[in-house]
Fold each of these.
Amino acid sequence: MYRNLLVVIAIIAYSACAQAQSGKLHVLHIKNAEELRAFFKYTGHDIPFISGHRGGVNKGYPENSIEAFENTLRHTPATFEVDPRLTKDSVIVLMHDATLDRTTTGTGKVSDYTLAELKQLRLRDVEGNVTPYRIPTLEEAIRWSRGKTVLILDKKDVPFEMTARIIEDLHAEGHVMVTVHNAREAKFYHDRNKEIVFEAFVKTQKALQEYEALGIPWTHIMAYVGPNNKPELKPLYKQLNRRGVMCMISTAPTYDKLPDAADRAAAYKAIIRDGASLIEADRSIEAAAAIQALAPAGSSKQRFFGLR
């Protein structure tokens, strides 16, 4: 049995490597907001997948870069959590930190630079190495992502009104989601645009009740339940799943930091086996490889996954 398991793992690894070298991308076939809601609807036979935290963090491919997205998609289907920030001239770019020092060749605040000035900088990867890649605008990322993946916009310094407007202007409701930390934030967007889908913080029974009280449709929600896989989540999973809601754990601040690869793989697998539907990970490619074999046979969600 152990020998057979090693053979299966080797086949999966070889297949993933061959696909990555072919230059093809794993894409999500999602055409509009209705299909996006169907993709995130909990069925009990869903295909577990990865959301790349900050676009996925891998050597040679800087966080929050289109090149990092493409690198991950050469290995696995994924959505991507990204970080919009405002420039001095009010253009939305992708940058996690309020300052440039950690991830670029620049220094100081993002908001002190115009887009033209920021475009002169180079991005650094997770090890601090300078790459050829530049800071993308949110519009560039949204246009690139159409027909390939789903972007999930985290909450930074961009006013809600601007976030809602760019999604509307680019007709991006089918492949751009918004992170909301509470029901009031969700209500702002839902009142403005009934098509927007949310990555919503629903870590407690109280939070669940607040979304229901404000009339936010569960069809529009994928629930972030926290960074720790713990037994106390079981009742919350049950209630959210009963409402058709998928649940996500972020491993970026917890299990991604485990020093041993085998321990990380075991943690990723346990998250899915214990009830989560997807994982938001810095180590996007590694986490995807760990959970690949947990996909159920004959899932109706298979129609959303493909190669291009």
Amino acid sequence: MTPEQVALARARVPAAFADPVSKRMVRWGIWIALILWIAACCAWFDITPARIASGLGNLGVIVGLMIPPSPGEHWDEIAKSLAETVAMAFLGTFVAAIIAVPLGFLGAGNVVTNALFHFSLRRVFDGFRGIDQLIWALVFVRAVGLGPLAGVLAITVADIAVLAKLYAEAIENAERRQVEGVHATGAKPSLVVRFGLLPQVFPVMLAQALYFVESNTRSASVLGIVGAGGIGLSIAERIRIRAWDEVAFIIILLLITVAIIDWLSARVRVRLIGTREGGARQ
């Protein structure tokens, strides 16, 4: 294009060459407000370079004390606590997934078409999802006492609403033609759900439940700190007495356990669901 043509185009469509001054001012205002907000938060939380440098130095000392990791003299206690953590995660997720299935169907707009009921149930899901597992653990420790039962109940209650919402969204995204085909045969609504919706969403439900088992294994290690059973109590006790080598050993065991669970869940998904390349296995 010649300079004359560029000038003509700039005169006709100025926004294609540069944003209007008002838009640029708004953009700069947003950036300035963001920077000021971050600076205010740093001042509020007393985040300073000196404090960060001191913290990194202390962290380096702790890491040095963790090497080499050592199990100490409590192999049996660590193994029992780790097994308790895995059992809590599995049982809590299993119960939550079972309860979440019917709730997911009730929360799906293409299954229950009553707008008021659908909206109300989804808000209940949102309310329960807003409460962290650790809060539920504190509640259930007070209700049922110390031990893994409080941890199982905390995981179950915290995960029911999350899984129900995920299941409801998967059901709403299911292919309509398969549902309509089952409905066209004259099947009852329960059979339409059984043969039209469930086969489509079951792989998604299973994959999400397996992921939650892995995630809850990590979460259960934190719940033990407040007395809800599991390896968290062992970690907290060793941090309290500054046995950092044993803390490192427990963390490594926990990482290995989570990796094994992830590998097993992947194998289960391939076995029950199949692979994209090869299709479902029989």
